[in-house]
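Have a think about this chain, tokens included, and walk me through the fold.
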Amino acid sequence: MKNKHYQIGTTLLEILISVVILALGLLGLAGLQVNSLQYQKTSSSRSEATQAAYDMGERIRTNWPLTTEANFSNERMANESRYNLVRTYADASNSASAWVTSCGVGSNCTPDALANDDFAGWINNLGRRLPGGAGSVSVVRATNVNPVSAFDVTVMWKEQGFVTRDITCPRAVSAGDGVRCITVRVTI
């Protein structure tokens, strides 16, 4: 008769190896989930910033006074100066609460007061929509080749986990480390 040999403990070892492999797989899946949430938050902030930049562009377009042919150049320059608000990130983020609207419903606002209201509403909204939200608007000067008025609307915000300098931020806004920027060009 043949002797039967039993292997003792092999099943236990196989189960232990399976549990280790399963644990490593679950840890990898958890890491993917964390990265997915971070990218979703970044995408959401970029979307909010883009919408905010277009919002300011529409405010400028809506409140752009119609000019007469005789005074076209002077009126265009006056309109451009009303909406030229180049701010550094530090200035813009620290003064968000200082913006106050001055035009009420039914009031007869001057173009300057209307531009101030546009900025006040926009800057205050940026502070609510984005963490550390701030904004800047700069005029792109018209030339003989390009006689239309144009503005670069820059939206800035702090992004969690981002610690370097964003190369897309314009130099004029002096955005430091950890600040993201989106700039949209608006033509009138």
